[in-house]
């Protein structure tokens, strides 16, 4: 065999990863990244993400839908589920199956407890309960913002957003100085910080010298002046602390984006924009942006709720098609991030089956942990179908798993959709420092994911 023949054989028979690293950063890639950064800055919570989606969908002619409304072919609708999840859908000429991309819009954070405010040694604090999987030490000594809603005793809903504007004050969790941390340094990383110790410093100015809890009372006075609330109103509030930072280009070459909440807004934004940008599809298409994935997808706004499947049944009833056949004929891309290979922590990954920054959109056949526990494990036929679709449209893609088999694991909404007899596979963007207050993604991977979702919505 000649050298030329050998090279051809290797090229034809071997699996060779494609890297986007040397591909030019086109104007389209950079423009799309700018739009995504704006989304990140305006959607740090699931409520804010739904508000953003509603405004965008409404500007494109989508109408609010409620169960019982009549549906028409060619109709463009969205179902707003309690301001915390949303399903946008379009009725195509073909209603015998649907194209569904499902992502989640909640991210790990610190939720404020229902009775949170207290004072100690002339400093006021808010007690927190962490939401989703976090590494607690990462949340100390970073600037924090307060986002959410408070429902007052008269039923009025008050929006709260403090800490993101440059003129706003920020909050923080303090840490022990290194000079006095000998005992703390001996503790395992997982126990050096406790959930009950993640209390947020919120003030130190007393309302008057004689008042025992004067700092706490002064904070209540400030909140009452700004929002008209009392301490009792915390009982019916949803407030959370998120990093007080905006999305920024990362690297001297501006090839990456650093931000809070890439998981999973780096997939939900492409899912939504690709859905809007494929209105010429003849298929019935849905885009689900769900809540509660980081805590197991339970509850009325999580993907285990029946509302998505109630909606599918409603579509079937409107057009007289068999709902069971529609589910069997449907396909879902579970749009969620995967762990990008990090050479600084190489021992956690199995290189041959990892996903890489600048490797394109990442397919994950299964998630779960250990012996594939808690996964739907997409069938080979579905993997082949998606693979052919991406290749046909010249989408750069890769396939991998979360990390080494015994290292840990994780999950997505995939198994909950698959449990309803809908073919489902995970697909998304590789992320560095996942679940930290500052995650990292590649702009090119972001754009390839958008392109992948577009060709999926347009496919027959």
Structure, explained:
- The protein has 460 residues and is of the alpha/beta class.
- The protein has helices spanning 3-13, 27-42, 46-59, 182-185, 189-192, 214-227, 262-276, 307-319, 323-328, 380-392, 414-418, 443-458, and strands at residues 63-64, 76-81, 85-90, 94-104, 109-120, 123-131, 144-151, 157-162, 200-203, 237-243, 248-250, 256-259, 283-290, 331-335, 338-339, 361-364, 368-369, 397-399, 409-410, 423-428, 430-431, 439-442.
- The strands form five sheets. A nine-stranded mixed β-sheet has the order 1-2-3-13-4-14-20-16-18, sandwiched between helices.
- The chain is built from twelve helices and 22 strands.
- Helix 2 (27-42) packs across helix 12.
CATH topology of the largest domain: Aminopeptidase
Approximate shape: globular
Q: By helix and strand content, what is the structural category?
A: alpha/beta
CATH homologous superfamily designation of the largest domain: Zn peptidases
Biggest beta sheet summary: 9 strands, mixed
Unreliable stretches, pLDDT < 50, 5 or more residues?
Answer: none
Number of distinct helices:
12
Give the N-to-C terminal Cα separation: 43 Å
Helical residue percent band: 25-40%
What's the level 1 CATH class of the largest domain?
Alpha Beta
Give the strand order, joined by hyphens, for the main sheet: 1-2-3-13-4-14-20-16-18
Number of strands: 22
Strand content: 25-35%
Number of domains: 2
Mean pLDDT: 95
* Global Rg: 24 Å
């Amino acid at each position: 065999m000649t050298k030329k023949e050998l090279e051809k054989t290797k090229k034809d028979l071997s699996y060779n990863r494609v890297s986007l690293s040397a591909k030019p950063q086109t104007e389209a890639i950079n423009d799309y990244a700018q739009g995504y950064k704006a989304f990140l800055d305006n959607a740090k919570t699931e409520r804010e993400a739904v508000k953003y989606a509603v405004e965008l969908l409404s500007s494109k002619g989508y109408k609010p839908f409620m169960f019982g409304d009549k549906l028409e072919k060619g109709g463009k609708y969205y179902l707003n589920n309690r301001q915390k999840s949303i399903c946008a859908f379009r009725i195509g000429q073909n209603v015998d199956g649907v194209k569904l991309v499902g992502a989640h819009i909640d991210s790990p954070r610190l939720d404020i407890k229902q009775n949170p405010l207290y004072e100690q040694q002339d400093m006021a604090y808010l007690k927190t309960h962490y939401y989703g999987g976090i590494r607690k030490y990462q949340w100390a000594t970073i600037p924090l913002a307060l986002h959410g809603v408070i429902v007052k005793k008269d039923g009025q809903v008050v929006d709260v957003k403090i800490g993101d504007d440059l003129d706003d004050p920020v909050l923080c969790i303090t840490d022990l100085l290194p000079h006095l941390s000998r005992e703390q340094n001996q503790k395992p990383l997982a126990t050096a910080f406790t959930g009950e110790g993640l209390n947020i410093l919120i003030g130190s100015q007393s309302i008057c010298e004689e008042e025992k809890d004067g700092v706490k009372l002064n904070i209540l006075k400030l909140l009452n002046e700004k929002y008209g609330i009392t301490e009792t109103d915390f009982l019916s509030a949803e407030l959370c602390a998120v990093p007080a930072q905006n999305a920024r280009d990362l690297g001297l070459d501006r090839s990456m984006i650093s931000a809070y909440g890439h998981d999973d807004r780096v997939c939900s934004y492409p899912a939504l924009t690709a859905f809007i940008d494929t209105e010429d599809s003849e298929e019935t298409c849905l885009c689900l942006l769900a809540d509660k994935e980081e805590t197991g997808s339970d509850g009325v706004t999580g993907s285990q709720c029946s509302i998505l499947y109630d909606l599918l049944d409603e579509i079937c009833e409107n057009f007289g098609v068999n709902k069971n056949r529609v589910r069997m004929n449907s396909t879902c891309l579970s749009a969620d991030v995967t762990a990008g290979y990090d050479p600084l922590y190489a021992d956690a990954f199995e290189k041959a089956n990892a996903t890489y920054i600048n490797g394109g959109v990442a397919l994950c056949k299964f998630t779960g942990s250990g012996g594939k526990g808690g996964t739907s494990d997409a069938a080979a036929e579905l993997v082949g179908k998606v693979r052919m679709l991406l290749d046909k449209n010249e989408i750069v893609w890769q396939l991998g798993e979360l990390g080494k088999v015994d290292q840990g694991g994780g999950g997505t909404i995939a198994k909950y959709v698959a449990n309803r007899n809908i073919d489902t596979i995970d697909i998304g963007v590789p992320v560095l420092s996942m679940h930290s207050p500052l995650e990292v993604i590649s702009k090119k991977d972001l754009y390839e994911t958008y392109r992948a979702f577009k060709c999926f919505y347009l496919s027959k």
